[in-house]
Design a protein that fits this description.
This protein is of the alpha/beta class. It has six helices and 15 strands. The strands form four sheets. Strands 1, 4, 5, 6, 7, 8, 10 and 12 form an eight-stranded mixed β-sheet that branches. It has a three-stranded parallel β-sheet with strand order 9-11-13. Helix 1 packs antiparallel against helix 2 and helix 2 crosses helix 3. The longest helix has 19 residues. It is globular, with a radius of gyration of 17 Å. It binds uracil.
Length: 214
C-alpha cells in the first residue's frame, strides 16, 4: 500500500516493528503522560539511529584489555535543535545516546488564527558549521515552524542538517520540501490529513500537551 507523501524525495521513513509499537502507544488516546513520555523517548532513539546512519566516522587506534584494535569515533560534533516545546521530548530520548551533543533551542509557536509561525526564542550552539545538526519537531503539520527553524539554523552556519519528526503529513512535507529541498526528513510515519486547526489526523493530538501533561 502506498503511503501518502512517501514520494517526497528527501523523506526517510522508519520501517521497524519497535518504532511501530511505540508510535501506536503515542497515538492511543488512553496513554497516560508518563507512558507517552517513555514511548516518545524510545521512538526518539530509533529515529536517531536512522538519522545518524550516514554520519562519517574517524578511525582511531584503541586498546582492548588484550590488544590494540581499529576503533571508530564520530567525525563531527553533534548539535540537537529541538523546537519548543514538543521537540524537547525527542531531545530527551536522544541525549543518553549522544551525551556530548550540544543543544540549541528554537521557540516558535503557530498563530492560531493564521497558523503562521512566530519566533519567540532562538539560542544556538557554536560550531554549527562543522556539526551534524538534527532539528527536532515531532509533528510536521503545516511545515512552517520546521521550515522557519531550519532557516534559522542555516543562517547560523549549519551545513549538515536533518529534520527529525515522529509524524508528517503531505501538506507539511510539501511546504518543508519547497523551502529546504536538500534537507533530509526522518519520520516514523506519514498520516493522510491535516485538519483545519493544523492538527495531523489521525495523529496523536497535541504532542507538547501530552508530553508535559498540560
Ligand atoms: N502539533 C501537534 O502537537 N500536533 C499536531 O497534530 C500538529 C501540530
Amino acid at each position: 500500500m502506498s503511503t501518502p507523501g512517501k514520494e517526497c524525495a528527501s523523506l526517510r521513513l522508519l520501517d521497524h516493528p519497535l518504532a511501530a509499537a511505540q508510535l501506536s502507544l503515542l497515538r492511543l488516546s488512553s496513554t497516560a503522560p508518563n507512558e507517552f513520555r517513555e514511548a516518545l523517548r524510545k521512538l526518539a532513539a530509533v529515529l536517531l539511529f536512522e538519522a545518524s546512519r550516514q554520519w562519517e566516522t574517524r578511525a582511531i587506534t584503541m586498546q582492548s584489555p588484550l590488544a590494540s584494535f581499529a576503533g571508530m569515533t564520530l567525525a563531527r560534533p553533534v548539535a540537537l535543535v529541538p523546537i519548543l516545546r514538543a521537540g524537547l521530548g525527542l531531545q530527551d530520548g536522544m541525549m543518553p545516546l549522544l551525551p556530548e551533543a550540544s543543544t540549541g533551542h528554537v521557540g516558535i509557536y503557530r498563530d492560531p488564527a493564521t497558523l503562521l509561525p512566530i519566533e519567540y526564542f532562538c539560542r544556538l550552539p557554536p560550531k554549527l558549521a562543522e556539526s551534524e545538526v538534527l532539528v527536532l519537531d515531532p509533528m510536521l503539520a503545516t511545515g512552517q515552524s520546521a521550515a522557519a527553524a531550519v532557516s534559522l539554523v542555516k543562517n547560523a552556519g549549519a551545513q549538515r542538517l536533518q529534520l527529525v519528526c515522529v509524524l508528517a503529513c503531505p501538506p507539511g512535507l510539501a511546504t518543508f520540501q519547497q523551502a529546504h529541498p536538500e534537507v533530509p526528513i526522518i519520520a516514523a510515519a506519514v498520516d493522510p490529513e491535516l485538519n483545519d486547526h493544523g492538527y495531523i489526523v489521525p495523529g496523536l493530538g497535541d504532542a507538547g500537551d501530552r508530553y508535559f501533561g498540560t
